[in-house]
Amino acid sequence: MSSSAPAPSQDPGPSPLAFGDPGGPSQASEGAAESASAPPAKKTRTNTPWTPAEEKRLKELRDAGTSWSEIAKTFPNRTEGSVKKHWYKDMHYAEFAEDESAALLEAIKEYDAQKWKIIGQKVGKPAKVFTDSRGWTPSI
Hints:
The chain is mainly alpha-helical and 140 residues long. The protein is built from 6 helices and no strands.
């Protein structure tokens, strides 16, 4: 029993449109249409670290009340968005005056000296349990 019919899985070949069928769009006009509607290429990300001089200039401009768009113009290799992000994420933090810094350091020292006593009170154990080498060891 032999069958002379071709197997149904055979490929009929390329479609006539692939070779520039007169009824379909030509290849030349397709390429022109694609390039005319293609969006401009995006800048690639560089992740260039900020230099201390750039950060100083950014701080001076922000402190002077300069707008973000004007600030961005002074950084030709950075976008307005990257300048804002750097300011808010990395630079915009509380600055302490010298007397505030001294008070903060004193508070840290006081807390450090008292921390185990405070922790012991919270968990109902004496501070010695936490500071004695034979005592409790964190299992974290």
